[in-house]
UniProtKB/TrEMBL annotation, chains A, B:
<dbReference type="InterPro" id="IPR003092">
    <property type="entry name" value="2pore_dom_K_chnl_TASK"/>
</dbReference>
<feature type="compositionally biased region" description="Low complexity">
    <location>
        <begin position="340"/>
        <end position="355"/>
    </location>
</feature>
<keyword id="KW-0812">Transmembrane</keyword>
<keyword id="KW-0406">Ion transport</keyword>
<feature type="transmembrane region" description="Helical">
    <location>
        <begin position="80"/>
        <end position="99"/>
    </location>
</feature>
<keyword id="KW-0633">Potassium transport</keyword>
<dbReference type="Pfam" id="PF07885">
    <property type="entry name" value="Ion_trans_2"/>
</dbReference>
<keyword id="KW-0407">Ion channel</keyword>
<feature type="compositionally biased region" description="Basic residues">
    <location>
        <begin position="358"/>
        <end position="368"/>
    </location>
</feature>
<dbReference type="GO" id="GO:0022841">
    <property type="term" value="F:potassium ion leak channel activity"/>
</dbReference>
<keyword id="KW-0813">Transport</keyword>
<dbReference type="InterPro" id="IPR003280">
    <property type="entry name" value="2pore_dom_K_chnl"/>
</dbReference>
<feature type="transmembrane region" description="Helical">
    <location>
        <begin position="159"/>
        <end position="181"/>
    </location>
</feature>
<feature type="region of interest" description="Disordered">
    <location>
        <begin position="337"/>
        <end position="368"/>
    </location>
</feature>
<keyword id="KW-0631">Potassium channel</keyword>
<dbReference type="GO" id="GO:0015271">
    <property type="term" value="F:outward rectifier potassium channel activity"/>
</dbReference>
<comment type="similarity">
    <text>Belongs to the two pore domain potassium channel (TC 1.A.1.8) family.</text>
</comment>
Length: 368, 368
């Protein structure tokens, strides 16, 4: 079975099992508590009904009234500040639902707004996240230099650790701030920040919904908006570092397979060609040339070692996120190109006794 | 200013302006209707208060009661089917909020569940989306062949059009189904499907919340779950086609810049090197070799034309999503590698009069 299909099928099975496990655990954790709450609520409703003797219609009317009035508790949800808050929850796909367009015109605009806004936001956060990672990488390198460490390379592990700590830090800062402003417990505020920054946005906890905060507390409103946007950037940076490469895996394999098919085809053709044409072709089998240039451009440290031929080795270079994570190494290594031993010099990796055709010979040897 | 920084700054400005415009429009569309609804609700509340003479405390109690009872209207939200529904809304980040964990244990598990589940789901939908695109591409190619069209290549425009139509189709099918099952208008059902499949999930319209559907209508429950998962795959396929490449732009540029810095450094070094070493280095300038192998492997159609040297030309090949969109072309072109003119043959593009060192000379000529 093709690697890409196998991976996709395993992922689907994985997700379904994950959903089944999740459903079982949520059932076990919540189901009983829910029945308890339900009984309590029915009992209270019974008491109030007996006390005031509602008609069934009046009670239904009262329910509708309370539910519709709920969004208005925060004051005007659709004045400019509220609308800005709503717009953020749309393009980031948080979608608390604390306010939802009530008019059909609002619903239509919301859909058009999301169609352009969501991809734009996605690209913006990934772009900003990547910039953040680049800055962090440079800072870490400088810190390592200042500390006089021998190895100043910033490894992927370093970056992932910093990313993880930044995410935790962002959540904790938010939890502290919102527990102070909203009067929630630290745990509930942390849960709110987590559910917001993962863009799940249940809406069971929503900031700026008390005491007409949207109108009366502009600094807190500004802080909340900035927190959401900065928080999403930090999460975006972490995703850019850890998850983004996995999103392009299948495309990667597709490209590699097509490349291999093409080169095999070329090999087959070469067998039926006259010797002169054959040499010209065999020197240029794409399986070799990319490995050569990959070695030269993206893995200077490996240039002393034989050119990798395993597809995995090729694939990892063609992932831009991988490039990003190693690009900073190239500067250092380029300094060593004058190295007379030629161990770390792309130039001298292909050196032979004769200066002319040295690379030609090397390629021939590999291509056979 | 560095291209990546410029792009990121423009994206940030773009998003902020987009938010401002959105806020202004939502304010204009919703603000007045909101005030109207508010007045009406206060009037109704006044009538009921006068009729039943609630004490202020009792009314607050009644409000709390109705709000807390609302999730229970759908029957048990946390039995297995409901928990499965909730688990889907967590890992897909839809997060309607029709049900949210009430216990602290549930909240904690929900957070851990999302941390692993969201990236896994993201990767699964992208992987599945890419597979869908590959199948669609092959189908389109076969259809074009069956129709006896001269050009059987499936262009990016073809794919985007098919992707767009699939998304619209999915939304319309969902709108028809949910308007039938939930008794919503087609427009409201379409709005529900859109808000669900974009993972915004306000929760103002939520399927399976009437007449204890979760317990009493298993086929409808299964349909709803499958609709959400299949719908998200279709959207994922479209994003894989259109948006994914933009997520890796900065990483791309970073890689290219590092590559150029390294090659320039190598050039500089070469000037101070003895002539023999210099030739060995100049043959191997990464700006040339990758363009050469890129040309050979990924742009066979261009092999007759001069090797591209503009960074943009390099960059477009190093984007895996780009590979994916062109990989299928390689099979066709590899058939033409025997072409004696060598115009479309990667092998013969570099042929010269002398069979030995022909590619060495070619590289030399390009590198100077």
């Amino acid at each position: 079975m093709k690697r890409q299909n196998l991976r996709t099928v395993s992922l689907i099975l994985c997700i379904f099992s994950y959903l089944l496990v999740g459903a079982a655990v949520f059932d076990a954790l919540e189901s009983e508590a829910e029945s308890g709450r339900r009984r309590l609520l029915e009992q209270k409703r019974g008491e109030l009904r007996r006390k005031y003797r509602f008609s069934a219609d009046d009670y239904r009317e009262l329910e509708r009234l309370v539910l519709q009035a709920e969004p208005h508790r925060a004051g005007g949800q659709w004045k400019f500040a509220g609308s800005f808050y709503f717009a953020i929850t749309v393009i980031t796909t948080i979608g608390y639902g604390h306010a939802a367009p009530g008019t059909d015109a609002g619903k239509i605009f919301c859909m058009f707004y999301a169609v352009l806004g969501i991809p734009l936001t996605l690209v913006m956060f990934q772009s900003l996240g990547e910039r953040m990672n680049t800055v962090v990488r440079l800072l870490l390198k400088k810190i390592k230099k200042c500390l006089g460490m021998k190895k100043t390379n910033v490894s992927m592990e370093n970056m992932v650790l910093v990313g993880f700590l930044s995410c935790m830090g962002t959540l904790c800062v938010g939890a502290a701030a919102f527990s102070y402003f909203e009067g929630w417990t630290f745990f509930h505020a942390y849960y709110y920040c987590f559910i917001t920054l993962t863009t799940i946005g249940f809406g069971d906890f929503v900031a700026l919904q008390k005491n007409e905060a949207l109108q009366k507390k502009p600094p807190y409103v500004a802080f909340s908006f900035m927190y959401i946007l900065v928080g999403l950037t930090v999460i975006g940076a972490f995703l850019n570092l850890v998850v983004l490469r996995f999103l392009t895996m299948n495309s990667e394999d597709e490209r590699r397979d097509a490349e291999e098919r093409a080169s095999l085809k070329r090999n087959r053709d070469a067998i039926f060609l006259p010797i002169e044409d054959r040499t010209s072709q065999m020197n240029l089998i794409p399986l070799i040339v990319p490995s050569l240039c990959t070695c030269l451009c993206y893995r200077p440290r490996l240039c002393g070692s034989p050119v990798p031929s395993h597809p995995e080795t090729l694939s990892c270079h063609t992932n831009p996120v991988y490039y990003n994570s190693i690009s900073y190494k190239i500067d250092e290594v380029s300094l060593s190109t004058r190295d007379p031993t030629g161990v770390s010099s792309p130039g001298s990796t292909l050196s032979s006794n004769s200066p002319r055709c040295r690379e030609h010979h090397r390629l021939r040897r590999k291509s056979i």
